[in-house]
Design brief:
381 residues, alpha/beta, two-stranded antiparallel sheet, globular
């Protein structure tokens, strides 16, 4: 393999009581995907799944088919979003728990702690935001309970490792004020349980408009399009072993201009009647990678397509011309970026395997079939 591709995996495709209460019985990611409509000529909506149909992740045969598709495309494993909300509260845990308990599919995995509150902002709600489940950091007792819950996964032979240590990604390292304490405690617990430690990776934009101060507070900063050195070093100083680098903001600012991109996103969030904001995929992803994405301890992210209108209407940008051929060139650029790293660290995160509500997926659909999977297979293997 030319790179270790790890695909983010959304377990949202099955009903849960919390969503039923807010949206109605049976709500899943498919609810809004199926009812999406085009906003302009040649706008690709709705997006209809092909081979797997409108699947339910409670079915083991679906999970097996997904793993086979991913393996054939050259993907090393899935990085499951893991919703531990604090105090033992979890969301969407059933699919991964069944994967872990059953031993099937026999396909590598790791976890990304999606440590953000669960709100109605994820999907359109007439401008009203309701917190479905808050994100709570309640200290050592809960951190230990969290570790004990994850321990069977971390010890599973399928768990993806970096330098022999289980890879654990934290989605929001900025608003987790106690993150250094959390990392220190988990490292000690890992060693006590026969592991050499844990490889912690901070998920972050390589061009950020926020920064953590020394006392853990958040402040707004102007993004630096020339270098990500300060962003990455500030996260590594918290105790992280690596950074999972996401270039979407950087690409959009380079493509549109920093101030224009910031202003248009703000206006679209306030004025839903404005025409949908569009980004040309090949022009935008050309600028996704910062020079520091080539660092040994930085794992860049590749990005097949994006259209969040099923979730958020026209308030976020839509990537047009996002085709398998353009994705193939994007992967090739990423491979060139990581070619000088040790094979163990030649990691590319794929965002995402199945974020259908964001138009951010590589699973087969009726328009492109296996095109995005073929692009991966033809470049990675």
């Amino acid at each position: 393999m030319k790179a270790r591709v790890i695909a983010f995996y959304l377990p949202q495709f099955h009903p849960i009581p919390e969503n039923d209460e807010v949206w109605g019985r049976g709500f899943t990611e498919w609810t809004n995907v199926a009812k999406a409509r085009p906003l302009f000529r040649n706008h690709y909506q709705p997006r209809i799944p092909a081979d797997l149909g409108f699947y339910d992740l409670r079915l083991p045969e679906v999970r097996l088919q997904q793993a086979e598709m991913a393996r054939e495309a050259g993907i090393e494993g899935f990085c499951y979003y893991h919703y531990w909300m604090g105090g033992g509260k979890q969301l969407l845990q059933r699919p991964f728990e069944e994967v872990l308990r059953s031993g099937k599919p026999d396909f590598p995995f790791c976890l990304c702690w999606a440590n953000h509150e669960w709100t109605t902002r994820t999907w359109e709600n007439g401008g009203k935001v309701k917190v479905i489940a808050p994100m709570v950091y309640s200290g050592d007792e809960d951190y230990i309970a969290h570790f004990n819950y994850c321990r069977p996964a971390l010890l599973d032979r399928r768990y993806i490792t970096v330098d022999g240590k289980p890879l654990f990604t934290i989605y929001d390292p900025y608003h987790f004020a106690d993150v250094s304490r959390f990392i220190e405690l988990w490292q000690r617990l890992a060693r006590q349980n026969g592991l050499p430690g844990i490889h912690f990776s901070a998920w972050a934009s390589n061009t950020s408009t926020i920064r953590r101060t020394t006392d853990g507070q958040i402040e707004r900063v102007m993004p630096n399009l020339r270098s990500s050195k300060e962003v990455f070093e500030s996260l590594l100083a918290l105790g992280f072993d690596s950074v999972t680098s996401f270039g979407k903001s950087r690409g959009e600012m380079k493509a549109k201009g920093t101030y224009r991109r910031i202003a248009t996103k703000f206006l679209h969030s306030k004025m839903s009647f404005l025409p949908a904001l569009r980004y040309n995929y090949p022009k935008t992803v050309r600028h996704f990678f910062a020079p520091e994405d080539a660092w040994e301890n930085v794992f860049p992210t590749i990005f097949p397509q994006w259209d969040r209108t099923p979730r958020a209407g026209s308030s976020e940008g839509i990537y047009v011309n996002a085709t398998p051929d353009h994705f193939r060139r994007h992967i090739e650029n990423a491979l060139n970026l990581v070619a000088g790293k040790e094979q163990e660290h030649r990691i590319l995160f794929l965002k995402s395997w199945n974020e259908w509500g964001e138009g951010n997926y590589v699973e087969p659909d009726l328009r492109y079939g296996h095109g995005f999977l073929d692009a991966l297979r033809e470049t990675i293997k």
